[in-house]
């Protein structure tokens, strides 16, 4: 693999974006390598969480401008450029973005496809595509608006300004801000915590939370309740509740 590095520790898989000469710009090759690497891991019951990170200096400075710059509208449509990233969004394994430095354009959009976002004090978020004569193209106009609201999304997308980690946390884009050198350890600890819970409940929780962005309250609460009922068919539910009553740690088996 040329553009990413993968490490696995027990149930946690860490993916490091690695194109340092272009600030981890998200090229087609990077997307393909990332999806090819994560696809089998997403299907592996022994994997409980992904951590996606960049370097200590940059998460990703966006889609690869050099790669895109010469393409025509016909090329873009024929390739359905960026459509592949939706596969990342549809993976069922929870994922945590660990962000140091720039998360711009496609980098910010990749962050928004993650479930938790741990940001360092130095992190910088933005959708500066307007400065290139285009708009966000990997879901930025849609996900940012849902996550931070129309007023803030319009501000970022129309002016191209960036926001720091604290503003991003206040706005609802970031889960936690930590010192820069604590980003990866914090993300990894959170990933290990999530990965130790029962897979059926973790997957159900993610799907229900994300459903809130897709549907109305009545439909959403009904969906949640039905999923909640269904979890009573799992051994993990019996184990979790028995362990509580027996004052011991649960041993979830993901079934
Ligand atoms: C390709 C990139 C790049 C990118 C940086 N580089 N970002 N190459 N695609 N997105 C390259 C630079 O050309 C440069 O290469 C090297 O990385 C270092 O970058 P510098 O600009 O010299 O670094 P610095 O001065 O520290 O500035 C950092 C930065 C700036 C503020 C992050 O690089 C920047 O503004 N980058 C572009 C950010 C952006 O516009 N992102 C959105 C992309 S569009 P050389 O060879 O000169 O050393 C997108 C979705 C588009 O994501 C959707 C359209 C359909």
TrEMBL record:
**Biological processes, Gene Ontology terms:** fatty acid beta-oxidation
Task: Kindly give the SUPFAM superfamilies that the UniProt entry links to this protein.
Answer: ClpP/crotonase (SSF52096)
Pfam families, sorted = ECH_1
The protein's annotated catalytic reaction(s) are: a 4-saturated-(3S)-3-hydroxyacyl-CoA = a (3E)-enoyl-CoA + H2O; a (3S)-3-hydroxyacyl-CoA = a (2E)-enoyl-CoA + H2O
Q: Which UniProt keywords apply?
A: Fatty acid metabolism, Lipid metabolism, Lyase
EC code(s) of this entry:
4.2.1.17
CDD domains referenced in this protein's UniProt entry, alphabetically: crotonase-like
Q: Quote the InterPro entries the UniProt record gives.
A: ClpP/crotonase-like_dom_sf, Enoyl-CoA_hyd/isom_CS, Enoyl-CoA_hydra/iso, Enoyl-CoA_hydra_C
Which PROSITE patterns would you find in this protein's record? ENOYL_COA_HYDRATASE
**Similarity comment:** Belongs to the enoyl-CoA hydratase/isomerase family.
Provide the function of this protein: Could possibly oxidize fatty acids using specific components.
Protein name, UniProt field: Probable enoyl-CoA hydratase echA8
């Amino acid at each position: 693999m040329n553009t990413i590095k993968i490490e696995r520790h027990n149930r946690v898989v860490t993916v490091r974006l690695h194109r340092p000469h272009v600030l981890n710009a998200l090229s087609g090759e990077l997307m393909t390598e990332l999806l090819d690497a994560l696809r089998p891991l997403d299907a592996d019951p022994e994997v409980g969480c992904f951590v996606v990170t960049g370097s200590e200096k940059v998460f990703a400075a966006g889609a690869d401008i050099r790669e895109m710059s010469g393409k025509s509208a016909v090329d873009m449509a024929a390739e359905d450029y960026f459509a592949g990233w939706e596969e990342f969004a549809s993976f069922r394994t929870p994922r945590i973005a660990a962000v140091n430095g720039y998360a711009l354009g496609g980098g910010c959009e990749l962050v928004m496809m993650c479930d938790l976002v741990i940001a360092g004090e130095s992190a910088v978020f933005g959708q500066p595509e307007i400065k290139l004569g285009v708009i966000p193209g990997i879901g930025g106009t849609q996900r940012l608006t849902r996550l931070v609201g129309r007023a803030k999304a319009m501000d970022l997308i129309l002016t191209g300004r960036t926001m720091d980690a604290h503003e991003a946390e206040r706005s609802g884009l970031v889960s936690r801000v930590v010192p820069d050198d604590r980003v990866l350890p914090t993300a990894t600890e959170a990933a290990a915590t999530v990965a130790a819970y029962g897979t059926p409940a973790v997957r159900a929780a993610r799907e229900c939370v994300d459903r809130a962005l897709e549907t109305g309250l009545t439909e959403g609460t009904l969906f949640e309740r039905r999923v909640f009922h269904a979890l009573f068919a799992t051994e993990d539910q019996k184990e979790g509740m028995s362990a509580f009553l027996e004052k011991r740690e649960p041993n979830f088996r993901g079934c």
